[in-house]
Design goal:
Number of helices: 13
Number of strands: 22
Shape: globular
CATH architecture: 3-Layer(bba) Sandwich
Helix content: 25-40%
Distance between the termini: 46 Å
Oligomer: single chain
CATH superfamily: FAD/NAD(P)-binding domain
CATH class: Alpha Beta
CATH topology: FAD/NAD(P)-binding domain
Largest sheet: 8 strands, mixed
Number of domains: 1
Length: about 450
């Protein structure tokens, strides 16, 4: 059987791969684009609502972001909103909830007020609330509390996303163009071969030929890269997040102040988009020896990517020698132990809702995904942002941890521009800017 020919093949049907599919279909003159996904549906793993925070990150309530990083994320979020507003209906994709980052105690409150002065000129909707202001928005955050609190946040803005629905819409909109769009589900790529000017992809169903390839498959992207001889300087540290359900006790999103010593997200409480009448608290952060949560078959792939050597050992030692990080990691291991986990997590969750009771907490089974955190072995450091390997020969490998979902269109734009230069195709940039950035 003759191999199918495509201008671009995208591996990975999550939010990143589908965003690129949409941009290529709508804004370039490429004629044939294929999306290959090993699962039976679009956005079935980390992009599924049960496996991420369902948050449209805008940089205003994420205290681990510098102003420069926050403004970049703000622009990414605006692209998602601009896209969704052009759909016939976006109510199943974007949701408006109040959002805030909560400061508890004098030190946190003083730091948050200072941050508000720096950030508020760039966020017109941003407000600084004292306890009375918070109580009007989130009464359960204030009730039963004695210490000083403050919050920075906004109301009436899009703050939550069903990323699976967003990914589905990208595919639908791409197929509505006049391009040859092929979406191959339940199709696993076994091998990519560089044939000097084109690429051959062997799958479990058939063979594909492509002028260019983009791999957007989480931690598996690095596995594909290293099999082809690229990215040997990187290792992958998979971080898994777990969540807890409570009754509907928060009206909107409540984040907490990030500990500067921890490279992991602070917990937050959010109304769950998929399960009405529930608030979801988390995530915890646990290192797991697998590239996909609950998939033990990916342990051998993790072992290939972790590649314990002097560089990886130095990064792990730098993490564990910091007492805050060491204690945090040990606590998160205990968060996975039945009976203990609710009792331990209750203390953290009470920072958001002081009156929360043990019987209110339920461990969210099979909820939470895996974030591939990259280790730069040469420079011996963690790479907490997006990572991209671009050898310059027509193949790109993307590893996109949080806020990769919010940044899906911005990251896809980067790949689009690389592919336009590689293929020499036309790019309707004015249309792109007007629709997504205007």
């Amino acid at each position: 059987m003759e191999a199918k020919q495509h201008d671009v093949v995208i591996i990975g049907g999550g939010i990143s791969g589908t965003a690129l599919l949409y941009l290529l279909a709508r804004y370039t003159d490429l004629k044939s684009i294929a999306l290959v996904e090993k699962c039976n549906g679009i956005a079935a793993l980390n992009s599924h609502g049960r496996n991420n925070s369902q948050t449209l990150h805008c940089g205003d309530i994420e205290t681990n972001y510098s102003l420069e990083k926050a403004l970049s994320v703000q622009a990414s979020a605006a692209m998602v909103v601009n896209y969704a507003k052009q759909l016939p209906s976006c109510e199943h994709i974007l949701y408006k909830y109040s959002k805030m980052v909560l400061a508890v105690g004098e030190q946190e409150c003083d730091a948050l007020e200072k941050r508000f002065q720096e950030f508020s000129p760039h966020y017109p909707a941003m407000r600084l609330w004292d306890a009375d202001g918070i109580s009007r928005i989130e009464p359960n955050v204030v009730w039963g509390r004695n210490e000083r609190i403050a919050a920075v946040g906004a109301t009436g803005e899009y703050s939550a996303v069903n990323f699976q629905a967003l990914a589905d819409s990208f595919v639908t909109q791409a197929k509505s163009t006049d391009k040859n769009i092929e979406v191959l589900l339940a199709t696993k790529v076994k091998k990519i071969t560089d044939l000097d000017g084109r690429f051959e992809l062997e799958t479990n169903r058939h063979t594909l030929n492509a002028k260019t390839v983009v791999v957007s498959a989480g931690g598996h992207s690095l596995l594909f890269a290293q099999r082809m001889g690229y990215g040997k300087q990187f290792a992958c540290l998979p971080m898994a997040g777990s969540f807890y359900f409570t009754p509907d006790i928060l009206r909107g999103k409540v984040y907490t102040i990030q500990n500067d010593k921890l490279p992991f997200a602070a917990i937050h409480g959010d109304p769950d988009l998929l399960l009405g009448g529930k608030t979801r608290f988390g995530p915890t952060a646990l290192m797991l020896p697998m590239l996909e949560r609950h998939n033990w078959k990916t342990i051998p792939d993790f072992l290939r990517l972790f590649s314990l050597d002097a560089g990886v050992m130095k990064v792990m030692w730098d993490l564990f020698k910091v007492s805050d990080i060491r204690n945090y990691m040990l606590k998160n291991i205990l968060f996975e132990v039945p009976y203990l986990r609710q009792r331990l997590f209750l203390k953290d969750a009470r920072k958001i809702v002081p009156s929360l009771q043990l019987q209110d907490l339920t461990f969210a089974k099979r909820v939470g995904g895996v974030r591939p955190v990259m280790i730069d072995k040469e420079n011996r450091k963690l790479l907490m942002g997006e990572a991209k390997i671009n050898p310059g020969n027509g193949i790109i490998f993307n590893m996109t941890p949080s806020p990769g979902a919010t940044s899906c269109l911005q990251n896809a734009e980067q790949d689009l521009r690389i592919l336009v230069n590689q293929l020499g195709c036309d790019f309707a940039e004015s249309k792109f800017t007007k629709e997504l950035k205007g």
